[in-house]
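Example complex used in Figure S2.
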Amino acid sequence: MEKKNIDWSNLGFGYIVTDERYVANFKDGAWDEGCMTTDANIVMSECAGVLQYAQTCFEGLKAYTTVDGRIVTFRPDLNAARMKDSCVRLEMPVFPEDRFIEAVDKVVKANAGYVPPYGSGATLYLRPYMFGISPVIGVKPAEEYQFRLFATPVGPYFKGGAKPITITVSDYDRAAPHGTGHIKAGLNYAMSLYPIQEAHRNGFAENMYLDAATRTYVEETGGANFLFVTKDNTVVIPKSDSILPSITRRSLVYVAEHYLGLKVEERKVAFTEVKDFAECGLCGTAAVISPVGRIHDHGTYIDFPSGMDEMGPVITKLRETLTGIQMGTIEAPEGWIREIK
Ligand SMILES: *Cc1c(COP(=O)(O)O)cnc(C)c1O
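Predicted assembly (341 residues):
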């Protein structure tokens, strides 16, 4: 398919409408067969469950052009499985995992002209999501649902290199113990908007959330998991039931152990030990891993030895290896790369 006339290297991280998206509807207890559509708009009841009580969840993944010109997605099976978990927790019907992967394939294929070329730094972002579409006024699950999946090309997350950011310890909580922090629910983001805007107003790029119960352990940011590196090159990952299980972070752990031969510890991380780490990064699909140089904590600062000019050496290696796997320059573990044919 001919590439669209887009200035790939100047794309931002925004929504651009593409040609076709996938839609399936759940009605009378079953999913219909689903179809591709050119209609980017949704018409629904003014009383739809999603509009009244936020019954919705989503996923995020990317399609890449590899060095040899193939179009691939990265571990879409894990997005399918995670969406299943989100649906169960929100009393929504599960969209079958094999159909989820099929929908990803179809949407990428139909919008192949929007998959940015290798080397541009841009990618095709894919957004699967589901929501309650039938009217709900008493608080209960909707009876009918829609699953959709659209694609939008996004630019390199870091323009002109990945500069370390400064984040701030938040006085707000992201997720309650036994709440919904471990699923990708829209509601987790709605309530994070005020804290993130406040962080921005105060000059910080992101919030570091601590555990809501004791405010002593590191959880994550509004949309990315933490990864720390100790001074003797051990990778440390915070463990908590209210952290969203990032696919990027889980993949980086594998890369650290199996490609770089590093030791990895997944455990509770007390905020008091953060000052002793050598490197800090934020993991997620959007940026793969973005370096944190400095953490603000109520008027005092933690400065990582890696500094504010560039990424630390271990995070650089992790990032280069994982992006190499995604772009086909480094051999991938079995089952990580799905070619769109
Ligand atoms: C989506 C998300 C992440 C990153 O997950 P990936 O699967 O790596 O994209 C991290 N934290 C939160 C809260 C998220 O919603």
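The chain has seven helices and 17 strands. The helical segments are 49-53, 76-89, 97-110, 186-190, 193-201, 247-258, 313-327.
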